[in-house]
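Check this:
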Amino acid sequence: MIQRETVRSMLRFLLVGGIAVLVDASCYWLLLRAGVDVDVAKALGFVLGAVFAYVANWRFTFGARRSRWSEVLFVLVYAVALLLNVAVNAAVRNYLGNGPASSTAAFLMATAVSAAWNFVGMSLFVFGRKEPVGERATR
């Protein structure tokens, strides 16, 4: 049975993730319309969404639970997520073509894969390690 705290964290993670996806998507579509290369646009949108997600997950989802290495671990988790995100986006676009529907499908698939990885990585590595009270617990 899933613990109440885990369910609460998952729901908050989904809310934060939804907003981060909106940040990502907004940047992605605006950059595409501005003529920026699709992979560059995807990466930039993802990075902006990631910055939002780190702060919101630290403050809202997981509280003050951070290890002294949380920033480094966050970068590592998100670096893997970025690679997954851009690779899945490119793979789906290559498979389906470059039309509007395939772009949307590629974005959604890339987002789903990287979001699943991010929840696991954030809950286990970035915010899952508790330190003794007084040692960066509230930083």
Observations:
- The longest helix spans residues 4-33.
- The chain has one domain: 4-126.
- Helices lie at 4-33, 38-61, 70-96, 100-126.
- Residues 89 and 106 are 5 Å apart (CA to CA).
